[in-house]
Amino acid sequence: MTELELTALPPDTSSTEAEHRGAVVAALMLTVGLAAIDSTIVATAVPQIVADLGGFSLFPWIFSIYLLTQAVTVPIYGRLSDVFGRKPVLLVGVAGFLAGSILCAVAWSMVALIVFRGVQGLAAGAILPTTTTIVGDLYEPAERGRIQGYISSVWGVSAIVGPALGGFFAQYWTWRGIFWLNLPIGVGAAWLIRRHLHERIERRTHRIDYAGAAALTLACSLLILALLEGGVSWAWSSSVSVALFALSAALLAAFVQIERTVAEPILPLWIFQHRTLLAANLAGLAIGAILIGQSSYVPTYAQRVVGVGAVVAGFAMAAMTIGWPIAATLAPRVYMRIDYRRTALLGGVISLAGCLLLALFVVGDAGIWRVAVASFVLGVGLGFASVSTVVAVQSVVGWGTRGVVTGSNMFIRTLGSAVGVAVFGSIANGRLAHRRQTPAAIFHAVHGVFWALVAVAVLGIVAQLLLPRRVTPLE
Q: Are 223 and 144 in the same domain?
């Protein structure tokens, strides 16, 4: 561990700073746009990438490595933003993302592209938790949800625009343009952040928990790798799966021991002992799993069972990302009237309704409009649930630990997605085993996943019931 001086203090939220908030929010939306568009724009260009670089068997790693490296760095960036400030961490994240984008644009092989996508992911891990934390710094609880709604709308736009842009670049120019597109967006975001986001710095000694960060990164990397590739690249019962899970467990145990002894842990263990934080993180697991289940299997259902094209299926799935920002914008009015717990429960019940709409489809009468309606309802539910839990988490702590609690919540949500990928994949593959992949068989497989989403939504409601009726600040 190394001693460093310099620490950031809460931003100046006086009237002078308030004049810059609009520009800061615009910068945050542009920054989130980098990660959001990049998660959707690449998919439609995969055939052209494979035709140019080869390595067809490796192309799934273009997505897996990005998710993996992004996920494992989120809690670390959250803690670093508490030590050094949000501004430098976010600027480093943007700079690293742009560097990774340039490397991806000049990649000469599939292996090189995968490595450079990992670089992008390492930087992207700084973006989502830091932008969410900055909103918590600059705005009171009554306004946070509205601003989060604006930022959430970026994901909705990206879900629609990203695939279209990816197809355009791949068909009419080159797939490498997908990555060059990030440069003007990132430079504009960095300029606005540098000019309009102001933080105060004072000298204070810190001891950086490098051992804890390394143990956490390795443990989570192995765990998420095992969950993503288990049942795909190797059998769940194989020696590879057993070894990955065993090593991950051993490293997590070592991490816990390290965090008990260091002066400034990278991920304080009290996060998992406070009722509000624990309940919100458990709810985050459910949100992450439902999100990945909907986005992974609704397009398959729409195309293979309903019989629509890829574009229409994408729009049906994107209905969720329309409902989400609408609910996120309305959430502050609700939780300021009835509290965070009831707002989260409202979101949980609506999410359950959306999952039930998906699960109750039958082959004969499942039109694409029902897919879109169910996705929209699910998005509304997740919007209420996610915003209320994140704002509750941020309201429990002060500026000095807001980054780490926000980062941990985002990380747990990503872990929920990784677990969801594994569980839902096992359900679908199990139902497809020894069957021809006809629409009836596909419906049977996806229908099982939709009922699993219902079960996860119920578990999410149980987690939300654990939230206290009144949030009590720790600091």
A: no
Contact between residue 86 and residue 197 where contact means Cβ atoms under 8 Å apart: yes
Number of structural domains the chain divides into:
3
The span from the CA of 49 to the CA of 98, in Å, is: 20
Q: Which segment of 156-170, 235-249, 255-269 scores lowest on mean pLDDT? A: 156-170
Among 164, 182, 206, identify where a domain stops. 206
Which residue range forms the structural domain that includes residue 253? 210-261
Q: How do residues 214-228 score in pLDDT, each as one tens digit?
A: 888 888 888 878 877
Q: H helices of 230-367, where?
A: 239-261, 275-301, 310-338, 340-359
Q: With CA atoms as reference, report the closest residue to 133 among 190, 178, 74.
A: 74
pLDDT at 149 over 80: no
Q: Examine the fold and report which residue of 164, 180, 206 is the final residue of a domain before the chain moves on.
A: 206
**Whole-angstrom Cα distance, residue 345 to residue 352?**
10
Question: What's the sign of the alpha-carbon dihedral 22, 411, 99, 211?
Answer: positive
Match 């990030």 to its residue by tokens: 182
pLDDT tier for residue 434 given thresholds of 50, 70 and 90: low
Q: For residue 436, what is the DSSP state?
A: -
Q: Are residues 298 and 326 in the same domain?
A: yes
| Same domain, residue pair 254 and 330 | no
Q: What CATH number has the domain bearing residue 129?
A: 1.20.1250.20
Bigger pLDDT: 264 or 449?
Answer: 449
If asked whether residues 153 and 296 sit together in one domain, one would say no
Q: Residues 40, 41, 42, 44: what is their CA dihedral angle, to the nearest 10 degrees?
A: 100
Q: Which residues pair with 7 in a beta bridge?
A: 202
SS3 category, 350:
helix
Q: Evaluate if residue 198 carries a pLDDT over 90.
A: no
Q: For 15-40, how does the pLDDT look when each residue is reduced to its tens digit (9 = 90+)?
A: 435 567 888 888 898 898 888 787 77
The answer on 182 and 280 residing in a single domain is no
